[in-house]
Amino acid sequence: MSTSTDFKVFLCEIEDLEDAFCLDQTIRTGSDYGSYHYNEKGEKVFITSDCWEDTLMLANEKSKEYFLHLLEEHWSEEGMQLDVYYEMKRQIAKED
């Protein structure tokens, strides 16, 4: 198991919108959410997952915000925040 800051590798590990939402919430709330686990050491944030072998390191607030931006860019539409988009998709699915 290694620690990496290669955001694109971790973005490729996300399987679906719910998985992306859980990762987003883990980073935003600073607590475990779904299969993701949050750990802080100083300014650095470490994210692990029950589904990954490696650890994602967010070195500072700027890298944390950038990763969240990439996550939203990849998994959301129309510039919506990921949590808003996720909830909208859940409501639409309930109506079907």
What does this structure look like?
With 96 residues, the chain is α+β, with helices and mostly antiparallel strands. Helices cover 51% and strands 19% of the residues. It has four helices and four strands, in the order βααβββαα. The chain has a four-stranded mixed β-sheet with strand order 1-4-3-2. Helix 2 runs antiparallel to helix 3. The N and C termini lie far apart (42 Å). The model has no long low-confidence stretch (mean pLDDT 92).
How is the main sheet built? 4 strands, mixed
Helix coverage percent of residues? 40-55%
**SS summary, helix count:** 4
Q: What class, by secondary structure content?
A: alpha+beta
What is the count of β-strands? 4
Read across the widest sheet, the strand sequence of neighbours is 1-4-3-2
* Mean model confidence by pLDDT: 92
**Strand content of the residues, in percent?**
15-25%
- Distance N terminus to C terminus? 42 Å
Question: What is the element layout, followed by pairings?
Answer:
Elements: E1 3-4, H1 7-13, H2 17-29, E2 36-41, E3 44-49, E4 55-58, H3 61-75, H4 82-95
Parallel strand pairs: 1-4
Antiparallel strand pairs: 2-3, 3-4
Question: Can you give me a brief rundown of this structure?
Answer:
By secondary structure, the protein is α+β, with helices and mostly antiparallel strands. The protein has four helices and four strands.
List its salient traits.
single chain, 4 helices, alpha+beta
